[in-house]
Amino acid sequence: TNSPVTVTVTGAAGQIGYALLFRIASGQLLGADTPVRLRLLEIPAAVRAAEGTAMELDDAAFPLLTGVDVVDDAKHAFDGVNVALLVGARPRSKGMERGDLLEANGGIFAPQGAAINAGAADDVRVLVVGNPANTNALIARSHAPDVPAERFTAMTRLDHNRAKAQLARKLDVPVADLRKLAIWGNHSATQYPDVSHAEAGGRPVPGLVDQSWLADEFIPRVAKRGAEIIDVRGASSAASAASAAIDHIHDWVNGTPADDWTSAAVASDGSYGVPEGLVSSFPVVARGGRYEIVQGLDVDAFSRSRIDASVAELREEQEAVQRLGLI
Ligand code: NAX
């Protein structure tokens, strides 16, 4: 058995938190040999609800769970943290402009980044789930100058998994037969779910689907799946988002399969013309505990224009938070 790992979940009383915490505590995040200490960060008004969740975590008697703390200050929450799951964010309310949304989230992610900088363990890994996830990760990272930039990531794994599910259904194959899908750009409606390198049971996917299905059905369906879930379920995606967060951290720590890759929003190194430093989604592999951008892929004209459009949106968000003094 390994020594306990400290995992901090923000927004712990929210609906994703509720689905996520039990999977972490059961060992699905880091494996059956790794005990976990949980820190639940909430705003004061939701601390009591988080304490209720902590009581339920006790009641599940998870053998790997060595402790649960509920806190309302970031400094406390991130002291010694190894894995930080930043789920809590300020949702867009009626009449709120994008600038207001970015500013409100800057007020959350700047101090959390600073607290991670001050107190996190040397091996800290940060996943931002709370929206706008890519730019929130950029804000947090810019307040953590002592933490390597590669440790700040944002979640597009849910989009990746959604794309896989849609493609599996279309081709009538098991999801396990699919390899090398990719999500590029922002976790927003501009994202580009890309099957141009994908394989189904070893066969190239582009030969199996037509371009009009890709452009008119697949891409918009994946990009707008969040809204579709809200419409049908009456609430936003929660367990699927938690599941994707588990996948993202699990693969980051344990590696991706040799013949496949996944998708994550990571600090760009300038690959594929994405400006260096932007937190943008790429096809990535995980090796030796690091996410690395898959290099050398051909990008056709269709893919190029889709990637550029989503990256342009990320640049606008970056410029907006720069103007607000948040980065
Ligand atoms: P909920 O509203 O159920 O929960 C959010 C929780 O965060 C609340 O309990 C709130 O009190 C808490 N919170 C707010 N500010 C906080 C702060 N400063 N510190 C600590 N906690 C704070 O939302 P939920 O459905 O759980 O979604 C959480 C976030 O995930 C949202 O921003 C949502 O947009 C985002 N999503 C991101 C996805 C992705 O793929 N990247 C997909 C799912 C989800 O939509």
Automatic annotation (TrEMBL):
<comment type="function">
    <text>Catalyzes the reversible oxidation of malate to oxaloacetate.</text>
</comment>
<feature type="domain" description="Lactate/malate dehydrogenase N-terminal">
    <location>
        <begin position="6"/>
        <end position="145"/>
    </location>
</feature>
<feature type="binding site">
    <location>
        <position position="92"/>
    </location>
    <ligand>
        <name>substrate</name>
    </ligand>
</feature>
<dbReference type="InterPro" id="IPR015955">
    <property type="entry name" value="Lactate_DH/Glyco_Ohase_4_C"/>
</dbReference>
<feature type="domain" description="Lactate/malate dehydrogenase C-terminal">
    <location>
        <begin position="156"/>
        <end position="321"/>
    </location>
</feature>
<dbReference type="GO" id="GO:0006099">
    <property type="term" value="P:tricarboxylic acid cycle"/>
</dbReference>
<dbReference type="InterPro" id="IPR001236">
    <property type="entry name" value="Lactate/malate_DH_N"/>
</dbReference>
<feature type="binding site">
    <location>
        <begin position="11"/>
        <end position="17"/>
    </location>
    <ligand>
        <name>NAD(+)</name>
    </ligand>
</feature>
<dbReference type="GO" id="GO:0006108">
    <property type="term" value="P:malate metabolic process"/>
</dbReference>
<dbReference type="Pfam" id="PF00056">
    <property type="entry name" value="Ldh_1_N"/>
</dbReference>
<feature type="binding site">
    <location>
        <position position="98"/>
    </location>
    <ligand>
        <name>substrate</name>
    </ligand>
</feature>
<dbReference type="Pfam" id="PF02866">
    <property type="entry name" value="Ldh_1_C"/>
</dbReference>
<dbReference type="InterPro" id="IPR001252">
    <property type="entry name" value="Malate_DH_AS"/>
</dbReference>
<feature type="binding site">
    <location>
        <begin position="129"/>
        <end position="131"/>
    </location>
    <ligand>
        <name>NAD(+)</name>
    </ligand>
</feature>
<feature type="binding site">
    <location>
        <position position="131"/>
    </location>
    <ligand>
        <name>substrate</name>
    </ligand>
</feature>
<comment type="similarity">
    <text>Belongs to the LDH/MDH superfamily. MDH type 2 family.</text>
</comment>
<dbReference type="InterPro" id="IPR022383">
    <property type="entry name" value="Lactate/malate_DH_C"/>
</dbReference>
<dbReference type="InterPro" id="IPR036291">
    <property type="entry name" value="NAD(P)-bd_dom_sf"/>
</dbReference>
<keyword id="KW-0816">Tricarboxylic acid cycle</keyword>
<keyword id="KW-0520">NAD</keyword>
<dbReference type="GO" id="GO:0030060">
    <property type="term" value="F:L-malate dehydrogenase (NAD+) activity"/>
</dbReference>
<feature type="binding site">
    <location>
        <position position="162"/>
    </location>
    <ligand>
        <name>substrate</name>
    </ligand>
</feature>
<feature type="binding site">
    <location>
        <position position="105"/>
    </location>
    <ligand>
        <name>NAD(+)</name>
    </ligand>
</feature>
<feature type="binding site">
    <location>
        <position position="112"/>
    </location>
    <ligand>
        <name>NAD(+)</name>
    </ligand>
</feature>
<feature type="active site" description="Proton acceptor">
    <location>
        <position position="187"/>
    </location>
</feature>
<dbReference type="InterPro" id="IPR001557">
    <property type="entry name" value="L-lactate/malate_DH"/>
</dbReference>
<protein>
    <recommendedName>
        <fullName>Malate dehydrogenase</fullName>
        <ecNumber>1.1.1.37</ecNumber>
    </recommendedName>
</protein>
<keyword id="KW-0560">Oxidoreductase</keyword>
<dbReference type="InterPro" id="IPR010945">
    <property type="entry name" value="Malate_DH_type2"/>
</dbReference>
